[in-house]
Amino acid sequence: MAREHHLAPSERSQAYADAIFAIVATIMIVPLSGEAVREIAENENLLDGIGEIWFKLVVYALSFGLVSSTWDLHAWVFRMIEKVNETIVLLNLGVLMLATFLPYAFLMFAEHPREPLAVALFSGCVAIQGFFMLAILWHASSRPNLLKKELAQQGTEKMKSLRTRATIRVMIRPIIYLIAIPVSYGSVEVAWALLVLAVLKPVLYTVGDAIVQCSRGNVKSGTKLLKLSRLYSETSDVVRTNAYSDGVYAIVATLIILDICVNNVPATGLLDIHGTLAETLARDADVFLSYAGTFVTICLLWYLHHSMFYLIRAQNSLLLTFNKLALLFAGYLPIVFKLTGEFGHLVRNQNSSVAVQLNSGTVFMASVWLLAIWITAMSKKSELLRPSAHDIHDCIFMYLNLLIYPIVSLVIFCVCFAIPVPSAVINGAQIALIAVFILLKLLRNWTQRCVRKSEPKESPEIGDIGEELSSGKGEPDGPTKEDLEGYDNPVEVESTSL
Q1: Taking the model in full, what pTM does it have?
Q2: Where are the alpha helices (DSSP H) in 85-155?
Q3: Is the CB of residue 274 less than 8 Å from the CB of residue 353?
Q4: What is the C-alpha to C-alpha distance for residues 58 and 63, in angstroms, rounded to an integer?
Q5: Which three-class secondary structure string do you get for 357-405?
Q6: Is 144:152 a contact under the CB 8 Å cutoff?
Q7: What is the per-residue pLDDT across 124-153, written as a single tens digit (0 to 9) for each?
Q8: How far apart are CA 469 and CA 489, in angstroms?
Q9: Rounded to whole angstroms, how far apart are CA atoms 296 and 294?
Q10: Cβ atoms of 124 and 181 closer than 8 Å
Q11: Burial 218-233 (b: 16+ CB within 10 A, else e)
């Protein structure tokens, strides 16, 4: 009984972890963006400069995917846990401490990719983090009072099998990264291949689990694991996905102001050169316009994400993957903003068109994955969407909202091949899209009112009403089971055995 007083709900630990993972996934772009602009400015050619830093951009994508996958694994482990004790809280802080160190390890690896020590530092950080996660899993599984009720009520043999399979899933990536450490001192290229292989951990886990099942004689269960339908069939709730996504969009929206605070606050000496403060600030008008356009874009992307997940009640593996890709390209927007502000006005040497194409291409990728999320949800409406989202009218307008950014971005990207386009064009278009979303919202409300007016209203006869009241049938009843069906049903939770 004394132990029960030291237990607490796991929600706060999960919320804290979501915030840490969202911050880590996005701030890794900050040092990269500052250094990238400096290196490109030395070349005076934006396209050549991008070609020189392409490896760092790829490493950022790899690191973002790594952090997102670690967050996904953290959410999967805590999906089994109902309550936490002090041990789990401290182990969770160990996981988050290693996560906060990852930006430094990422930057070291991006700067010195051929140094074995840089590879070892990056790999060791991820491996130790995996061991902390394994400790959380084993500690919770050995104490039934910490687990969900449906798991705690299972037999000993079933719990042992579940823990074994969960251990394999947690330890695949740390083992690969531990192998990469000694390999890097022999061949850095092979170590790189192992790091990329670790990103494919879900595929490796599925194949390994299928092999284990077949070796035990469960051939039917093993082959079932390899079917692509598993990407659709297993679902989980979207609470932590919403929290993580909100964190990424919020941090990206605030990161873009850091460069302005550092580089665009006029010093006293500049006022003596350029005259008044207004004249000095006018020289950075392109940067401020780029900030406004980028901020509006990030906020509207979050608005689309919020509108979709307001109607989505569950997620499958495919939907979760598309969400990670949408957040990845949103994470590139701080560096795109900086390049657009710095080079978007240089029309004479084609830097402006390249900057605009980088901007529009990144926005296109960030928005087209949102469209893929909605297509995936619509393909499994009964399992993933709320009952209120089954209305064809709402679905059509959701598609229209999600198509705005891909179409506008693709048109601007293609126009840049024909004529030079300054950054003011795309920034102005991004700001003007606010009016497009407002008009589409007004059009949706107007069509809904027209549909309601056109629906025929049934008016019962007065005599029938009197008979119902006299017999007591006219008294209002509570909501029936059919009325409430689908609204309070719990979301089908992802199978912990996967």
Answers
A1: 0.81
A2: 86-111, 116-141, 149-152
A3: no
A4: 9
A5: HHHHHHHHHHHHHHHHHHHHHHHCHHHHECHHHHCHHHHHHHHHHHHHH
A6: yes
A7: 998 999 999 999 999 988 888 888 887 777
A8: 34
A9: 5
A10: yes
A11: eeeebeebeeeebebb
